[in-house]
Write a structure and sequence with these properties.
Strand content: 15-25%
Radius of gyration: 16 Å
Helix content: 25-40%
Number of strands: 5
CATH superfamily: Flavodoxin domain
Order of helices and strands: EHEHEHHEHEH
Distance between the termini: 18 Å
Strand order of the largest sheet: 2-1-3-4-5
Length: 188
C-alpha cells in the first residue's frame, strides 16, 4: 500500500488519518509506504495532445516519473488530502493531472489496471457533505484508472491534529486499511 499525502502539513489531520489506514494494512500483513507530495518537485501538467494514448509528458524532467513508478508498483493507493477551495490540495491535483499523460499509453496502461483506492479527506466545515468535493471526483478518477474504489473516510476537523480526538474517525481509517487488504486478496 502506498499513501500519497497531499497536505504540506506533516502531522496534520490527513497525515494522521493515513497513518491509521497504514497501521490497519500492516496489521493485516501487507507492506506500506508513504509519500509527502510536498517534498517533491512536481510541476503542473504542460500542454498535451487530446488523444490520451498519444500523450507525451513535456515536463518529465521533474520528480513525477519517480513518484509514478512507486505508484505503479503498489496494489493499493491511498489519496489523502485536505479540501482546499472545493478540491484537493495543489500538490495532489498536480499529481493527478500528470497521470493523464501516462494512464492510457503503453507501457504504463496495464500497470494502472486493477489497483485498489482509498480516499481520505479533512475539511474545516461542519457539514459532512463538504468531503464530496474530494470523494465524488476521486470515484470518477478511480473509474478512469480502471481501479476499484475501496472506500473513503471524511473528517470535519480544522485545527492541526484535531482528528486525534475523533476516535470514531481513526477507527474507521484503521478498519478501512484492514478491509482493503482483504478485498484485494479476494477474501471479501
Amino acid at each position: 500500500m502506498l499513501a500519497l499525502i497531499g497536505s504540506p502539513r506533516k502531522g496534520g489531520n490527513t497525515d494522521i488519518m493515513a497513518d491509521r489506514v497504514l497501521k490497519g494494512t500492516e496489521d493485516s500483513g501487507a507492506t506500506t509506504s508513504k509519500i509527502y507530495l510536498d517534498d517533491y518537485h512536481v510541476r503542473p501538467i504542460g500542454e498535451v495532445c487530446d488523444n490520451t494514448r498519444m500523450r507525451d509528458d513535456p515536463r518529465s524532467d521533474d520528480d513525477f516519473v519517480g513518484l509514478l513508478e512507486q505508484f505503479l508498483e503498489s496494489d493499493i493507493i491511498v489519496f489523502s488530502t485536505p479540501v482546499y477551495w472545493q478540491g484537493p490540495s495543489a500538490q495532489m491535483k498536480c499529481f493527478l493531472d500528470r497521470m493523464s499523460s501516462y494512464y492510457n499509453r503503453s507501457p504504463y496502461r496495464e500497470r494502472f489496471d486493477g489497483k485498489g483506492y482509498i480516499v481520505l479527506c479533512a475539511f474545516g466545515r461542519k457539514d459532512p457533505e463538504h468531503g464530496e468535493w474530494i470523494t465524488a471526483p476521486m470515484k470518477l478518477t478511480v473509474e478512469v484508472l480502471r481501479g476499484r474504489y475501496l472506500g473513503d473516510v471524511r473528517a470535519s476537523v480544522y485545527e492541526k491534529g484535531k482528528v486525534l480526538q475523533k476516535t470514531d474517525i481513526l477507527q474507521r481509517c484503521y478498519d478501512l486499511g484492514k478491509k482493503a487488504v482483504e478485498v484485494m486478496a479476494g477474501n471479501v
